[in-house]
Amino acid sequence: MATDSRPAHGQSVLALPQLSLVALFVTALITAQVTASKVIAIDIPFSLPLTGNLITVPAAVFAYALTFFASDCYAELYGKRAAQYLVNVAFAMNFVLLGLVWLSIAAPTYEFSPVAQEPFAETLGASTGIVVGSLFAYIVSQNWDVFVFHRIREATDGDSLWLRNVASTASSQLIDTVIFITIAFFIFQGLALNDVLALIVGQYVFKLLIVGLDTPFVYLVVGFVRSRGLLATPDPAAD
Question: Residue 48 pairs with which residues in a beta bridge?
Answer without folding.
Answer: 52
